[in-house]
Amino acid sequence: xxxxxxxxxxxxxxxxxxxxxxxxxxxxxxxxxxxxxxxxxxxxxxxxxxxxxxxxxxxxxxxxxxxxxxxxxxxxxxxxxxxxxxxxxxxxxxxxxxxxxxxxxxxxxxxxxxxxxxxxxxxxxxxxxxxxxxxxxxxxxxxxxxxxxxxxxxxxxxxxxxxxxxxxxxxxxxxxxxxxxxxxxxxxxxxxxxxxxxxxxxxxxxxxxxxxxxxxxxxxxxxxxxxxxxxxxxxxxxxxxxx
Length: 243
Prior knowledge:
Layout: E1 5-6, E2 13-17, E3 21-25, E4 30-36, E5 39-45, E6 52-56, E7 61-65, E8 70-75, E9 78-82, E10 87-89, E11 92-94, E12 101-104, E13 109-112, E14 117-118, E15 138-144, E16 147-149, E17 162-168, H1 177-222, H2 232-242
Antiparallel strand pairs: 1-2, 2-3, 4-5, 6-7, 8-9, 10-11, 12-13, 14-16, 15-17
């Protein structure tokens, strides 16, 4: 062992030196060189930092740098995230997306162009004019459809979702709303009047019955009691006995 090499290292190092840091790592850790000013020192990490990818060998696990345009990568030739100004497509970082694809500035990827899609037209509505279905001969009917897929930035825009056309119907009179309302109001008043009349009649009947009952009670109180008629047979009985 070199005099400057120590085996009692910290931070996951298997061997190290005071000047160069880690020289080898413990099993399953990755060795990577970090630059500090003009100096590079070795460190041992459980996973490689951003801009590096890990490679495993029988004698050592190392972190290697990604390509200059990659922010993170799986291997040197397969990027998983690009640096600013580049778009990811099939593991590569491109300044411009291929034909048939568009740049997604949110995910910084090249994605397929999406065109607008709509549902089928609904049936035509009833023929109307100014919101009414009566009182006219010529009106308009409409139909609608819904957007089921909004387009991407370079996709075909959505068509109109509403259509209108003229229509002809047999003219029919509209029921006057004021007249109908007036009739309903009159019927309500009449019903209330009939109920009030029945209530008054019931009240009068109860008052009359009460008055008759009170009159009968007063008559019974003021009328003198009738004397009981004498029994003629009892009165004649002594005279018959005397004879």
